[in-house]
C-alpha cells in the first residue's frame, strides 16, 4: 500500500486498530454516529437481506449513500469497510457495471473479499467487484484511474480522514464529467476544538473528525463541484455522559450529500439564466413514480416543476439528465424554490429530534430496554418496544432478525424477518 509520509500516521494507525481490532460488529459502537442511518428504501432493503451476514454485521455506515438508476455504471466506494454498500451497488449496477472498494484496514478488506463468490451465487451472475488496499487520500496510487468512475459513494469515512481536501480532490479527478459523489457522513454545526478532534474514541466513532458543514461546502465548490445538495439529514444523539461533556454545545448530524461534477458539454441549455421547467419521465428503478434530487426537490413522474437555473443546470449537466427534460423558462416571471441552506436544515433536524424524544420516542440503543415506541413513528425511527414488536409492526433496523420483530405484511421488502416464521410467512 502506498504510504502517507505525514504527521498523521498516528491517526491512521488508531483508526485501523479501531475498525480492525477493537470493533467486532456494529453492536460494539459507543455512539449512534456510525449507525445513524434511517431505513433505506424498500428496493435496497430487499438487496440487503440477500447479502452474506459477515458483510452486514460489520456495517458501520451512517446513511444510505446508494443512488438508484445506476445500472451499467462504474462505482467507487471510499472506505468500503466490510463491503456492505459495494454489495448493494453490485446488485444495482448488474453484470455490465463495476464496483471498486478502497479501504486501509486489512481485517475489513478480508471480510469484503471473502464473500464475493457466495454473493455471486445469490445474484446469479459474477459481479465485477474488487477491493483495493489503500488510502482514500491516495486513490490514484491505489489503482483508480482518473475519469474512470461514474459514481463515488462513501459511508461515514471522510470524517476519519485528516486531509479531507485531498480526498475530495481525488474523487473529483476519479469521476467522469457528469459523475457524482453521493455520500453520507458526520458533520458538525461549528468548528471542533482540539480536545474533541484528538479524542481517540470520538475520532473512531466518527465524531472527532466531523467536518463543519460551512467549511466543507466551500471546499467542495473550490474543487469544482456544483453547489452541494443535501439529500437527507438526521441529528446524532450522544448518550455517553463523558463524551457529551467533551463535545459541549456542538451538535452533530448525519448528512447525505450529493456533489455533482458538471459536464459543461451536456445538455443544450441555451439561455438558462433564470428559472427552468423540469419533467421527470421515470426510468429509475425503485423511484418509478417520483425522483428525489434532494431534500427540497422531489419530481413527480410526468409532472413539470419550476426550478432555479442552478438546479436545472446541475441536472442537465449530470448523469441523471437522461431521465429528465429541462426547458428554459427565461422571461416567464415564474418563481422557483431555492435550496434550503444547510444551517436551516440542521436547526430543523435538531428541533425534530427533540420533539420525537419528548413524544416518547426512544433514543437509539435505549429503545429495547426502555420499551418506548411512538405509534406510527416506530418503523422509520428504528424504535421498538419489546413484546409489542410484532403486533405493532415496529421493527428496529439491524436488530430485526435476532429480536424476532417484523412488521406484518411488510416483511419481505423491509428485509425484516422473525426467526422461525420465515418459511410460512414468506419473509426473507
Ligand atoms: C465507519 S467505517 C465505515 C465502513 C463502511 N463504509 C461501512 O459503511 O460499513 C470506516 C472505514 O473507513 C476506513 N478508513 C478510514 N480512514 C481511511 C483512510 N484514510 N483511507 C482508507 N480507509 C479508511 C476504515 O478502515 C473503516 O473500514
List keywords for this structure.
428 residues; alpha/beta; Rossmann fold; Ribosomal Protein L9, domain 1; 3-stranded antiparallel β-sheet; 19 helices; 13 strands; binds S-adenosylmethionine; SAM-dependent_MTases_sf; Arsenite methyltransferase
Describe the structure.
- Residues 360-428 have low confidence and may be disordered.
- The chain starts with 8 loop residues before the first helix and ends with a helix.
- The protein is globular.
- It has helices at residues 9-22, 42-48, 53-57, 84-93, 106-114, 116-123, 164-174, 194-197, 200-204, 213-223, 241-247, 309-316, 342-358, 367-370, 378-381, 389-392, 400-403, 411-414, 422-425; strands at residues 74-78, 98-103, 129-133, 149-155, 175-188, 211-212, 229-235, 252-260, 276-280, 290-294, 297-300, 304-307, 324-328.
- The chain has 19 helices and 13 strands.
- With 428 residues, it is α/β, with parallel strands linked by helices.
- The strands form 3 sheets. Strands 1, 2, 3, 4, 5, 6, 7 and 8 form an 8-stranded mixed sheet that branches. A 3-stranded antiparallel sheet has the order 12-9-13. Strands 10-11 form a two-stranded antiparallel ribbon.
- The chain folds into 3 domains: 9-260, Rossmann fold; 264-339, Ribosomal Protein L9, domain 1 (3-Layer(aba) Sandwich); 377-425, no CATH class.
- Bound molecules: S-adenosylmethionine.
- S-adenosylmethionine binds next to α1 and α4.
- This is Arsenite methyltransferase.
- Belongs to the methyltransferase superfamily. Arsenite methyltransferase family.
- It comes from Coemansia asiatica.
- Pfam families: Methyltransf_31.
- Keywords: S-adenosyl-L-methionine, Transferase.
Amino acid at each position: 500500500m502506498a504510504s502517507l509520509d505525514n504527521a498523521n500516521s498516528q491517526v491512521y494507525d488508531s483508526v485501523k486498530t479501531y475498525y480492525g481490532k477493537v470493533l467486532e460488529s456494529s453492536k460494539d459502537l459507543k455512539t449512534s454516529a456510525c449507525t445513524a442511518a434511517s431505513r433505506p428504501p424498500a428496493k435496497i432493503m430487499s438487496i440487503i437481506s440477500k447479502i452474506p451476514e459477515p458483510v452486514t454485521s460489520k456495517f458501520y455506515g451512517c446513511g444510505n449513500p446508494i443512488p438508484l438508476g445506476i445500472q451499467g455504471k462504474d462505482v467507487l466506494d471510499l472506505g468500503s469497510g466490510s463491503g456492505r454498500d459495494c454489495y448493494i451497488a453490485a446488485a444495482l449496477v448488474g453484470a455490465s457495471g463495476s464496483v471498486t472498494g478502497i479501504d486501509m484496514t486489512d481485517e475489513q478488506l478480508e471480510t469484503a473479499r471473502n464473500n464475493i463468490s457466495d454473493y455471486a451465487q445469490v445474484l446469479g451472475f459474477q459481479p465485477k467487484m474488487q477491493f483495493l488496499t489503500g488510502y482514500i487520500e491516495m486513490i490514484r496510487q491505489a489503482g483508480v484511474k482518473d475519469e474512470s468512475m461514474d459514481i463515488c459513494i462513501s459511508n461515514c469515512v471522510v470524517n476519519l480522514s485528516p486531509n479531507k481536501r485531498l480526498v475530495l480532490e481525488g474523487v473529483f479527478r476519479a469521476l467522469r464529467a457528469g459523475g457524482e459523489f453521493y455520500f453520507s457522513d458526520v458533520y458538525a454545526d461549528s468548528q471542533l476544538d482540539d480536545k474533541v478532534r484528538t479524542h481517540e474514541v470520538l475520532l473512531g466513532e466518527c465524531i472527532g473528525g466531523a467536518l463543519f458543514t460551512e467549511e466543507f461546502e466551500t471546499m467542495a465548490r473550490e474543487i469544482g463541484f456544483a453547489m452541494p445538495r443535501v439529500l437527507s439529514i438526521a441529528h446524532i444523539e450522544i448518550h455517553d455522559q463523558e463524551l457529551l461533556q467533551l463535545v459541549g454545545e456542538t451538535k452533530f448530524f448525519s448528512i447525505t450529500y450529493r456533489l455533482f461534477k458538471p459536464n459543461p458539454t451536456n445538455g443544450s441549455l441555451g439561455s438558462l439564466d433564470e428559472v427552468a421547467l423540469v419533467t421527470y419521465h421515470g426510468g429509475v428503478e425503485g423511484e418509478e413514480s417520483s425522483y428525489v434530487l434532494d431534500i427540497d426537490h422531489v419530481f413527480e413522474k410526468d409532472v413539470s416543476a419550476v426550478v432555479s437555473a442552478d438546479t436545472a443546470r446541475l441536472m442537465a449537466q449530470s448523469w441523471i439528465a437522461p431521465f429528465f427534460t429541462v426547458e428554459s423558462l427565461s422571461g416567464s416571471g415564474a418563481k422557483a424554490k431555492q435550496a434550503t441552506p444547510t444551517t436551516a436544515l440542521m436547526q430543523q433536524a435538531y428541533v425534530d429530534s427533540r420533539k420525537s424524544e419528548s413524544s416518547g420516542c426512544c433514543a437509539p440503543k435505549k429503545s429495547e430496554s426502555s420499551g418506548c415506541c411512538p405509534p406510527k413513528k416506530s418503523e422509520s425511527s428504528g424504535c421498538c418496544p419489546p413484546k409489542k414488536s410484532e403486533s405493532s409492526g415496529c421493527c428496529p433496523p439491524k436488530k430485526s432478525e435476532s429480536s424476532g420483530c417484523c412488521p406484518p405484511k411488510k416483511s419481505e421488502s423491509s428485509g425484516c424477518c422473525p426467526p422461525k416464521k420465515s418459511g410460512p410467512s414468506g419473509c426473507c
